[in-house]
Write a structure and sequence with these properties.
Elements lengths: L14 H19 L1 H11 L2 E4 L2 E4 L8 H5 L4 H20 L7 H6 L5 H35 L9 H9 L1
Antiparallel strand pairs: 1-2
């Protein structure tokens, strides 16, 4: 059963366009983030050297920090979140176009109804972007820790994430 999102959008707004933009944005952001895996295994391959037919771990090998390997690959979610924030302005502008639903919204007894209809769906989209980015961050961190030889890890990888964010 699909939830009725029209009660959270400006009256008369066609939500198919926003759903399509959000769905495509999430799909593209997720696909772009998967290039992290290629980057991770490329960096991991640099830790080894080939001697004849054998592959050996270099004695001086150090894996780059997780944040350095991951850095650009979650940016799609940030861009999508900014696009969703732009939809707030689109929703406010929509009230002044076409049927001029702004007059209807001003007559409603709840004066916050217009603001609720302009802010709710974009904020839900932003929350979905943040949640998807957080889930992928945790998955990619686990993959980094599993794929990197213990001898090549620098300490405190998890704390370095929070230093970059703050």
């Amino acid at each position: 059963m699909k939830p009725d999102l029209s009660r959270w959008a400006p009256p008369g707004l066609d939500l198919h366009v926003e759903k399509r933009v959000f769905g495509c944005g999430m799909a593209l952001s997720t696909l772009f983030s998967m290039f992290y895996i290629i980057n991770l295994f490329g960096e991991r391959a640099k830790l080894y050297r080939k001697v004849g037919t054998e592959v050996h771990l270099r004695p001086d090998a150090v894996m780059p920090d997780f944040v350095d390997v991951l850095r650009p690959f979650l940016m799609g979610f940030l861009i999508l979140a900014l696009c969703m924030a732009a939809f707030i302005a689109v929703h406010y502008a929509y009230h002044h176009q076409g049927s001029k639903s702004i007059y209807l919204m001003r007559r409603l007894p709840d004066r916050w109804e217009r603001h609720r209809r302009c802010w709710t769906l974009p904020l839900l989209g932003i929350a979905a972007c943040l949640l998807a980015a957080l889930i992928l961050l945790l998955i990619y961190y686990g993959l980094y820790m599993l794929a990197t030889p213990k001898a090549c890890l620098t300490p405190h990888q998890w704390q370095k994430i929070w230093r970059v964010i703050s």
